[in-house]
Amino acid sequence: MNITWTRTLALTGMVALVAACSKVPITGRSQLNLLPESELMGMSLTEYQGFLKEHPPLQASDARVKMVRGIGDRLAAAATAYLTEHKAADRVANFTWEFNVVDDPTVNAWCMPGGKVVVYTGILPITKDETGLALVMGHEIAHAIARHGNERMSQALAMQGAGVTLQAVLSEKPSTAS
Fold first, then answer.
1. Which of 114, 120, 121, 105 is nearest to 141 (CA)?
2. Is beta strand 30-32 parallel, antiparallel or unpaired with respect to 21-23?
3. What's the pLDDT tens digit per position in 41-100?
4. Separation of alpha carbons 43 and 69, rounded Å
5. For 66-96, b where at least 16 C-beta lie within 10 A, e where not — what string?
6. Closest listed residue to residue 124, CA positions, set 51, 66, 64, 56
7. 112 in helix, strand or coil?
8. Catalytic residue list
9. Which of 106, 109, 116, 156 could form a disulfide with 48 if both were Cys (CB 3.0 to 4.6 A apart)?
10. Is 0.90 surpassed by the pTM of this model?
11. pLDDT digits (tens, 9 = 90+) for 115-147
């Protein structure tokens, strides 16, 4: 690979990174989103369904599931209303909210891109009541709305691309590494 090609590749990469930068509507923080949100949601749905096959959720009649789903429905409605009011409804336009509880002693809860939320029974004694659980679930839902999954994957892809570019540059001029 010649140096002109390497520079062109590096410049193209930098332009793509700048073009992929966006602002989180609520915080105004800049973030890098290289992947189309639809692709990320498709990948997360596949992972979510695989997770639920390995960790079957509790039945809808379980009081803990009713509590999680009730809180989740209220949080999803509030987030959607807030985003709509602030002209950022596109952040959740393609979300299909789903709330499940798995019987696992791990102290954890998460929300995947697209609004797929799982609460582990192990976190329920820590949250103690609906208010504590709403705090945890709201935090997890905020990660999905802020597209943190896309941001993390984009950062990893950018680092990988930078590594490949650096490797190409160093293979052209190995003496510059010293």
1. 114
2. antiparallel
3. 788 899 999 999 999 999 999 999 999 999 999 999 999 999 999 999 998 999 999 999
4. 23
5. ebbbebbeebbeebbeebeeeebeebbeebe
6. 64
7. strand
8. 140
9. 116
10. no
11. 999 999 999 999 999 999 999 999 999 988 887
